[in-house]
TrEMBL record:
Pathway assigned to this chain's UniProt record: Purine metabolism; IMP biosynthesis via de novo pathway; N(2)-formyl-N(1)-(5-phospho-D-ribosyl)glycinamide from N(1)-(5-phospho-D-ribosyl)glycinamide (10-formyl THF route): step 1/1
The protein, known as: Phosphoribosylglycinamide formyltransferase
Function: Catalyzes the transfer of a formyl group from 10-formyltetrahydrofolate to 5-phospho-ribosyl-glycinamide (GAR), producing 5-phospho-ribosyl-N-formylglycinamide (FGAR) and tetrahydrofolate.
UniProt xrefs under CDD domains: FMT_core_GART
Amino acid sequence: MKKVAILVSGGGSNMLTLCDSMVGDHPARPVLVLSNDPAAKGLERASARGITAAAVDHRQFGNDRAAFEVELIKLLDAAEADIICLAGFMRVLTASFVERYTGRMLNIHPSLLPKYKGLNTHARAIEAGDAEAGCSVHIVTPELDDGPILGQARVKVEAGETTESLAAKVLVQEHRLYPAVLRRFAQDQRGVLELT
Ligand code: GAR
């Protein structure tokens, strides 16, 4: 059974769908939910499901990302995490942290990568007049929102679409895509999953 740690910064709706998917014959189980923000709602939600939840407050480390990450590493290693899922984790991680978990850290990003790395993805898709938007799950590499894509799901951008309406539609797809990709990944299945 693979052990999965999930890193969140906010509400953790993707984290919950991941946790809820890891039941029955699923090859993995959630062992830790970790946040950079002690007030993240996702922590309470994980605890309420009986999952160990912990925070390392990045603000206590100022600009010292390495010191912040040392504390993350202690908790991840104590939990013996095999797979790390970033799920709305909004801190940029250093190359040395990413390299420690090479090939076993996943991220979900709310755009059809390689388009719109970084923030404000939905506004940028609407602004560009894109006919479709979506989300991607990829393996984390030191470059931001880069790394091999494991799966994507698409939505249509309708006339009059707002960033809020588009974000809501994409989030529904995120909740389908991330659990599906994690299951395949935990089974060592590779290739790109295209959800329709
Ligand atoms: C999700 O839309 C996720 O794709 C995005 O943050 C949201 C978190 O929601 N992640 C990023 O933008 C990462 N760069 P959640 O806390 O409800 O899962």
